[in-house]
Design goal:
The structure is a single chain. The strands form 4 sheets. A 5-stranded antiparallel sheet has the order 4-5-6-7-8. A 3-stranded antiparallel sheet has the order 3-2-9. The chain has a two-stranded antiparallel sheet with strand order 1-12. The radius of gyration is 48 Å and the shape is flat. Helices cover 53% and strands 15% of the residues. By secondary structure, it is an alpha+beta fold. It has 17 helices and 12 strands.
């Protein structure tokens, strides 16, 4: 098939798809006008109120992605690969405002009935001049080197979206999708080349708007760019360089009301339009009734002073013939008013119908009075909780679909990151500590390039503004239960190690119910692994109870005997010390006596008479 025939084939497919989507695209424009209250500035915009109430329920805060190994017992290489990819996605989300795009998608889903976003790889290059030696000498070679790269999440307006609509009822059977890119002829030539200068005859043609269709063909795994006014050739054709599983750079769109025979959804507005139209009519009637509801009447013209009596809130009017006024029965006798009871009755009936319509709209859209904070003060706490849970369950499917959309979008982002990012870029997402083992880092990068997310699991941690008190109570109860379970089970598992897997599974089931349970999971795994290792070690044999009793008695006897020996030793030492003290006393007495005797002999020999006395207190002097 020639290129011209190929282009014409796709133009025919585009025409069929646009015809199928035309009614839906027109409906989107009307819904947006109604939502923004552009035409009837005075209407009660319950549709706007419903959408604003459901917005934070579906999505209100950027999620935190995480990447984990499917096999928790895998090696360090897979751990580094998971960490590298997780940090890369976190950096991308914070750098390029993922949150805003998700809010655009959420708003389109609630207002238009379909929310779409896709992932786009962008890289910037810089020129590097190198010198190379050739036969002609040294020559300078200019090369384009990748300077930076990113995977950007982009928004698609449902008005610009078309998809395969020929005998296709579900998204999984869709073989192609396209989006309209609005640009001028001048922009088209600048982006796709000067060979399309034939589109421009004069300066006015350069500013003329044109449509460019970006078509993603899953069967051929090619992307075509087709100009509305270029029917003979493609503007550009690119091969599948992203290597995304499923080829499409976008997940299944968020659909409101969808059947299995078409990919064109119906918005919530379409489902409640009859009620909205009736409500607008009721509000308009109430406005006109209020305008008609005013005091009007007539008076006797013989009292001209009463002509403007109703112009002021409080006033006294001077009457020239007050006696005549009294004779005619006072003001009641000369004035009469038009009846207004029928207007009041009509307003009451209209107000009741308006309230009924509002309740029906909130019921259909899933916005209950309890979610709006308007519960009956006489209701019991149990009744309020049941109503809240009912409103939550009705919208849980949409909330789950929103999370599915985000996770699928992040998986596509991860696939593109693994395929397109340079090894040096991927390595930058690791900490300096993780990069110490250079060989392990390179093996982790090779694993991402070859297996991508085959052995990994990608999820998101989300916070919710609803039921925070209930979640806090649930967390406290779960932690208490886990603590009691581990405390009671430790003794049982020590005696019966075979029960360890059962208690581990029960603990993991409780932890899984906690908000942000991921932070507890590695700790639980580590604790139970260590308990298993400890129980696997051979335990020393437990001695017989009778033998232990005899041994304890013998130890007591030995201990008592040792105490007696120590007491006897101390007593013997005391006796020895006492004997030594007596011996020393006797020795000192003998020595003193010898000294006294010797001194006396010296005095006699000298012929002197003296009273000198040497005494220790033991011997009396002579």
């Amino acid at each position: 098939m020639s290129e011209k025939d190929e282009v014409q084939k796709w133009l025919n497919k585009i025409a069929i798809a646009e015809k199928a989507y035309n009614e839906y695209h027109e409906q989107i424009k009307k819904v947006r006008e109604y939502y923004k209250n552009e035409k009837s500035k005075n209407k009660t915009n319950i549709f706007w109120s419903s959408v604003e109430t459901l917005k934070p329920f579906l999505y209100f805060k950027q999620p935190v992605p995480y990447v984990e190994r499917k096999d928790k017992a895998s090696n360090k290489i897979q751990y580094l690969a998971c960490k590298m990819l997780e940090k890369a996605i976190e950096w991308d989300l914070s750098k390029f405002d993922f949150d805003s795009v998700m809010k655009y998608v959420r708003n389109d889903f609630l207002i238009s009935g379909m929310g779409i976003a896709y992932e786009k790889y962008n890289a910037t290059f810089k020129k590097i001049v190198t010198q190379q030696v050739s036969e002609n000498g040294v020559v300078e070679v200019v090369a384009d080197v990748k300077d930076s790269e990113r995977v950007e999440t982009c928004y698609i307006d449902p008005v610009d979206f078309i998809a395969d609509s020929e005998k296709v009822g579900i998204w999984e059977d869709c073989t192609w999708f396209g989006r309209v890119i609005h640009m001028t002829n001048e922009e088209l030539i600048a982006q796709f080349g000067k060979k399309f200068n034939y589109l421009v005859d004069d300066e006015n043609d350069r500013k003329k708007d044109t449509k460019v269709y970006e078509i993603w063909d899953k069967k051929a795994r090619k992307t075509y760019y087709i100009g509305k006014d270029c029917g003979s050739e493609f503007l550009k054709v690119t091969d599948d360089i992203l290597k995304i599983d499923g080829f499409f750079p976008l997940p299944k769109p968020l659909y409101a009301t969808l059947t299995n025979d078409s990919l064109i959804p119906a918005s919530d507005y379409k489902e409640i339009k009859p009620l909205l139209d009736e409500l607008d009519g009721i509000v308009e009637r109430m406005r006109l009734t209020c305008q008609a509801l005013k005091v009007t009447g007539c008076y006797d013209n013989s009292f001209p002073e009463l002509a403007n009596i109703l112009d002021k809130d409080v006033t006294l009017v001077s009457i020239s013939d007050f006696t005549k006024l009294k004779e005619n029965g006072g003001l009641a006798g000369i004035m009469d008013f038009a009846p207004i009871a029928q207007y009041i009755t009509a307003l009451q009936a209209l107000a009741e119908r308006r309230q009924d319509l509002v309740a029906q709209i909130y019921e259909i859209t899933g916005v209950s009075d309890i979610m709006r904070g308007n519960s009956d003060p006489n209701e019991t706490a149990t009744a309020v909780i049941k109503k809240t849970n009912f409103g939550t369950l009705r919208n849980q499917d949409r909330q789950n679909d929103m999370q599915r959309f985000i996770i699928d979008l992040l998986k596509i982002k991860a696939d593109i990151t693994c395929e397109m990012f340079e090894p040096e870029t991927l390595a930058q997402f690791l900490s300096e500590e993780d990069k110490q083992d250079g060989q392990a880092v390179m093996q982790a990068i090779d694993l991402l390039k070859t297996d991508k997310m085959r052995n990994m699991y990608l999820g998101i941690e989300t916070d919710t503004s609803f039921n925070q008190d209930a979640e806090a109570v649930k967390t406290q109860e779960a932690i208490k239960t886990i603590n009691d379970m581990i405390t009671n089970a430790f003794g049982i598992v020590s005696q019966q190690p075979l029960l360890l897997p059962l208690y581990r599974k029960m603990t993991e089931s409780l932890v899984a119910q906690l908000p942000n349970a991921r932070q507890f999971e590695p700790v639980i795994d580590d604790v139970f692994n260590k308990i298993g290792e400890q129980l696997a070690q051979p335990q020393p044999e437990q001695p017989n109870a009778e033998i232990m009793k005899v041994q304890q008695n013998q130890d007591k006897i030995n201990k008592d005997f040792a105490i007696k020996q120590e007491q006897n030793k101390i007593k013997q030492e005391e006796l020895a010390l006492k004997k030594q003290t007596e011996d020393n006393k006797i020795m000192m007495q003998n020595k003193e006596a010898d000294m006294q005797f010797e001194l006396k002999q010296q005095e006699i020999a000298a012929g002197q008479n003296t009273s000198a006395n040497i005494s220790t207190g033991y011997v009396r002097g002579f």
